[in-house]
Amino acid sequence: MNNKIPLLCIVGPTASGKTGLSVELAERYNGEIVSCDSMQIYKGMDIATAKVTKEEARGIAHHLVDFLPIGEAFSVSDYVKLAHKVIAEIYERGKLPILVGGTGLYYSSLVGNITFSEEKIDEKLRAELNEQYQREGGEILLKQLAEFDPETASTLHPNNGKRIIRAIEIYRNTGITMSEQMKRSKEKPSPYNYLTICLTYKDRQKLYDRINLRVDKMLGAGILDEAKAFFNQNPGKTASAAIGIKEFKPYFDGECSLEDAVEKLKMETRRYAKRQLTWFRRCEDVKFLECDCFDILSESERLINEWNFLKYS
C-alpha cells in the first residue's frame, strides 16, 4: 500500500457541488485537480459542460480540461492513459492528485486499472451498426447485445449508442464479450490508494432543483451562442453527444420552440444525474455524502483524516 499513489476522488451527479468542494480540498491538502469528465475535454463547450472558471479555480491547477478539438474522437482508453500520466506527474511534484467528475466509466476504468485490448477496428462493421442504430434505435441493438453479453447490456441505456456498438464490435471482432474482457483486464491491482467521496442528496428534488437552476444560468451565460458556434463547425460524434449541446439542435432547425428545448435539456440532465448515481452506487469503496444533510467540507475532511495512507507534502 505504501508504494501506491494516493488519489482523492470527488465524484457524483452533475450540479451536486463537486467543483466547489474539490477546490476547497485542493487548497487545504496541497492538491491539483484532474478532470474525470468525458465532455470537458473538448474546446468550445465551456458553458454546456460547466467547466471550472478562472474565478472558481482560485489558482488551483486543473488538468485534462479544454484540450481537444470538437472534431476528434476520444475513448476511455485514451483517457486512462493520459490520466495515469498526469496523476503520476502531480504526485512527483509533491502534490495530492484529486480526481473530480461524474463520468463513471472513466472513474471505474482508471482506479480499477483496466487495460484495454488493441484489436483492429472494423470500419465496415462499425458503419453497419451505426446505420442500424440510426434506423432502428438503441433498444434493438441492446437486445442484440443481451443475447451474448447480458452483463454488459444490463449496464447500458438505449441512448448510449456508442457503448452498445462498441460492446457488439468487441464480441464480433474477438469472440470475447466486453464483460469478460473487463474481468480479464482487472488482473493487475490498482496503482492507487484511493479515497472516493460521492456527493448525493437525500431529497432528490433538491438535486433536480439545482440542475434546473444551472440550466437557467447557462442561458444567461450565453449557452445559445455557444451551441450555435458548435454546430457551425464540424463536430465529431463524441462531442455532439454532449448534454447541453444536442438539445438545441431541434430549436436551431425550427423543429421546436426555445422553451421546449430548454425543458428537454433540464429533463435529459436530470435523467443523466440519475444514471450517474446508479453507476457510483454499484462501485465498491465509495463514501456517500448527502449534501442536504451534512456540512460536506467538514465531513470530507473527517474522511480524509481517517484515510490511513494519505501522503502529501
Keywords:
313 residues, alpha/beta, Rossmann fold, Histone, subunit A, 2 domains, 6-stranded parallel sheet, 6 strands, 11% strand
Question: Secondary-structure map with pairings?
Answer:
Blueprint: E1 5-11, H1 18-28, E2 31-35, H2 54-57, E3 62-63, H3 76-92, E4 96-101, H4 104-111, H5 123-136, H6 138-148, H7 150-153, H8 161-174, H9 178-185, E5 192-200, H10 204-221, H11 223-231, H12 237-240, H13 249-252, H14 258-282, E6 286-290, H15 296-305
Parallel strand pairs: 1-4, 1-5, 2-3, 2-4, 5-6
Helix pairs in contact: 3-4, 5-6, 5-8, 6-8, 10-14
Task: Please characterize this protein's 3D structure.
The protein is α/β, with parallel strands linked by helices and 313 residues long. It has two domains: 5-115 and 189-305, Rossmann fold (3-Layer(aba) Sandwich); 123-185, Histone, subunit A. Helix content is 51%, strand content 11%. The chain contains 15 helices and six strands. Helix 2 (54-57) links the parallel strand 2 (31-35) and strand 3. The longest helix is centred in the C-terminal third of the chain and has 25 residues, at 258-282. It starts with a strand and ends in an 8-residue tail after the last helix.
Q: Give the structural class.
A: alpha/beta
Give the radius of gyration. 20 Å
Order of helices and strands: EHEHEHEHHHHHHEHHHHHEH
Query: End-to-end span in angstroms?
Result: 18 Å
The tally of strands reads: 6
According to CATH, the homologous superfamily of the largest domain is P-loop containing nucleotide triphosphate hydrolases
How many domains? 2
- CATH architectural type of the largest domain: 3-Layer(aba) Sandwich
Strand order of the largest sheet: 3-2-4-1-5-6
- Overall mean pLDDT: 91
- What's the number of helices? 15
Overall form: globular
- The proportion of strand residues reads 5-15%
CATH fold descriptor of the largest domain: Rossmann fold
Largest sheet, strands/sense/barrel: 6 strands, parallel
CATH class of the largest domain: Alpha Beta
Percent helix, as a range, is: 40-55%
Low-confidence stretches: none
